[in-house]
Amino acid sequence: MINIGQYQTFTILRETDPGLYLGDEEENELLLPHKYKPETFEIGDEIEVFVYLDNEERPIATTLEPYVTLNEFAYLVCSDVNKYGAFMDWGLEKQLFVPFKEQARPMTIGSWYIVYLYLDDKTNRLVGSSKTNRFVDNTNVTVEKYDKVDILVTHLTDKGANVIVNGKHHGLIYVDEIFEDIRSGDRLKAYIKKIREDNKIDVVLQAPGYRSIEPNANYILDELKAAGGFLPLHDKSDPDTIKNELGLSKKSFKKAIGSLYKDKQIIIKSDGIELI
């Protein structure tokens, strides 16, 4: 079976003028144009390719790596707009089409958008959509508190950073828990802080509670060593100063230096902390 929009492994069957013909166990055949063929190969070799549709909407193979595969999200730039819709650069020769009806807001050339790649049931064509809410759902949450997850930042508001969790769920990082520069399109590791009764998901970039003490403590040790053994920060320092210097909340900082103090790795002085 040929799976449009996905990577597949095929066997090289023969070489022709247009390129290499590939085949699977079900005797389906697919063309890999000459410009994408490997430098060295033999008939019978297996090769992994990405399958998409050419300009005549026929399945075709490529060794280029797209920025997004079927049923996934990506941050893509709009490269063209015509009377039918917008076209996104997704790393392949043929651009990804986003019809007007699939645009959360009118797309403009040069602007970046979170786009979901899906296969249209009616036309059997690969289509992009920036109406991302259609493709995420919190009805049945598949993550738990403290889980380490992958997130994609979709957009920032006064409330915080809206994110897609593991490509499946809505999530939010509250603004007072963001201690680093993040932007739309960033892919990051994060942690589930809380799952609310209405299945809304609170996300943080640092392991919540006691789980964050050890990595933060190690981070502060590294910063102390880089600074020559002393940092002019302590438990009475201004929260904004701590955030600007270390990217940590004051609460996280105090937990970390408390752990280091108990382990007799630092001295807490009136003007800062010092390595022992």
Overview of the structural elements:
With 276 residues, this protein is mainly beta. It folds into 4 domains: 56 residues, OB fold (Dihydrolipoamide Acetyltransferase, E2P) (Beta Barrel), CATH 2.40.50; 62 residues, Beta Barrel (OB fold (Dihydrolipoamide Acetyltransferase, E2P)), CATH 2.40.50; 58 residues, Beta Barrel (OB fold (Dihydrolipoamide Acetyltransferase, E2P)); 66 residues, Arc Repressor Mutant, subunit A. The chain has 3 helices and 18 strands. The strands form 4 sheets. A 5-stranded antiparallel β-sheet has the order 3-2-1-4-5, with no helix packed on it. Strands 8-7-6-9-10 form a 5-stranded antiparallel β-sheet, with no helix packed on it. α1 packs across α3. The protein is elongated.
Quick overview of this protein structure:
With 276 residues, the chain is mainly beta.
What key attributes describe this structure?
276 residues, mainly beta, OB fold (Dihydrolipoamide Acetyltransferase, E2P), 5-stranded antiparallel β-sheet, 18 strands, GntR family transcriptional regulator, CvfB_fam, CvfB_WH, CvfB_S1_st, nucleic acid binding
